[in-house]
TrEMBL record:
Residues 1-28 form the signal peptide. Its cofactor is Mo-molybdopterin. InterPro entries: Ig_E-set, MoCF_OxRdtse_dimer, Mopterin_OxRdtase_euk, OxRdtase_Mopterin-bd_dom, OxRdtase_Mopterin-bd_sf, TAT_signal. This is Sulfite oxidase.
Length: 407
């Protein structure tokens, strides 16, 4: 009897293991990789959400392309998914129309293919999700747990919105204070609307290409309304309608989402919020995630890396909203007690990121390096990024710290 029980037990154990393995394989099959969700994306992109699609660029892959982020590696943050557009291939202009109206003296509708006949303009800019760095806040706020890979440096090319208006003989009226963009709702896509201040018209671009290729469908092709210097959410994908309005739109993506607390009638960027607390968002006591704040990243050494010494090259990128230049990047290896000036690759205003580098003399052993950027307006990064904690985890720009070993 004992022998039978043992045999039966072993069979049951084997059957259980087989079922467990089969279940694991089934689960793996149900969790698609980035390239399965979006045709042409790098398989190693981190899937933060399958619907709507949210993909983060692993930091080592982001750092491997310091000049310009290729379409295969660029993060994806969709608030809505346009059916059939989950690919890095370009979307055709044929049949796509753009309506321009609201507080404009001559409303009009234009075929997207007509934009090719107008003067083309190019801009290299940082495209960054408002929630980039969210997981660095403590306690972790709600939303997708972004590391630092919700960002990229890309070149858009297309027609300036103001040039299109001029070509059509149209002007916004004096009451127009905002540009409000609507994404296409084809395929019964959910509504997505964003408003930005009217002064953004000066640089607003109806982008038709990215990095010298037709604008990838998943990144807003065939036409995306781009505002250099603004967080990614404002750069409306698949734009179908542009309105000039007197006020901000009141859809969920404008209120209460994509906002941070403010102190009314002051110039302070944040109203300190108790970590873990809630906030009663209104138009009066909060501001939208519009302009990108000052930030910098360390691309080398990478976290946990072992490098040859004693002369260690430290490099990365810095960026802001492009209104004024980045003027300085400092690095520290003693927790911020003293700082060493890095060399900037270029000076002057830029919507794209600016590369920086320096060489440090470091003894063998473990080290931590910190980096912070300054711009011409005197803006910099806080040593403690948690000072700007907010319940949705937007606009993190705390000083980056990297631990590594010198051999």
């Amino acid at each position: 009897m004992e022998r039978v029980n043992r045999r039966t037990t072993l069979k049951l154990m084997g059957l259980g293991a087989a079922l467990l393995a089969a279940g694991s394989r089934g689960f793996a099959q149900q969790t698609p990789t980035a390239d399965q969700l979006v045709k042409g994306k790098h398989a190693k992109l981190i899937v933060l959400s399958q619907r709507p699609i949210v993909l983060e660029t692993p930091f080592d892959l982001l750092a491997s392309q310091p000049e310009r982020t290729p379409k295969e590696l660029l993060y994806v943050r969709n608030n809505v998914d346009l059916p059939g557009y989950n690919t890095v291939e370009g979307a055709g202009l044929e049949g796509w129309t753009l309506e321009v109206g609201g507080l404009v003296d001559k409303p009009f509708t234009v075929e997207a293919k007509e934009l090719l006949a107008l003067p083309q303009h190019e801009v290299t800019m940082v495209l960054q999700c408002s929630g980039n760095g969210r997981s660095l806040y403590q306690p972790r706020p709600s939303g997708n747990p972004w590391g630092r890979g919700g960002v990229g440096n890309v070149t858009f090319r297309g027609v300036r919105l103001k040039d299109l208006l001029a070509a059509k003989g149209a002007k916004p009226t004096e009451k127009a204070l905002f540009i409000t963009a609507h994404a296409s709702r084809q395929g019964n896509a959910a509504e997505f609307v964003r408003s930005v201040p009217i002064h953004a018209l000066e640089e607003a671009l109806l982008a038709l290409s990215m990095n010298g290729e037709p604008l990838p469908a998943v990144h807003g092709g065939p036409v995306r309304l781009v505002f250099p210097g603004y967080f990614g959410v404002n750069n409306v994908k698949w734009v179908a309608k542009v309105e000039f309005t007197e006020g901000e739109n009141t859809t969920a993506e404008q209120m209460p989402r994509y906002r941070v607390p403010t102190i009314p009638n002051t110039h302070l960027p944040f109203l300190p919020q108790e970590p873990g607390g809630r906030y009663p968002y209104t138009f009066a006591n909060s501001r939208p995630n519009w302009l990108v704040n000052v930030n910098s990243f360390i691309f080398a050494p990478l976290e946990g890396q072992t490098v040859e010494g004693p002369y260690v090259r430290v490099e990365g990128v810095a960026f802001n909203d492009g209104i004024v230049p980045i003027v300085s990047v400092e690095v520290s290896t003693n927790g911020g007690r003293t700082w060493h000036q890095a060399t900037l690759e270029r000076t002057g205003r830029s919507y794209g990121w600016v590369r920086w580098r320096t060489t440090l003399y470091l003894r063998p052993g473990e080290h931590q390096v910190m980096a912070r950027a300054w711009d011409a307006a005197g803006r910099s990064q806080p040593l403690d990024g948690n000072l700007a904690w907010n319940e949705r985890g937007y606009e993190y720009n705390g000083v980056m710290r990297v631990k590594f070993t010198v051999a």
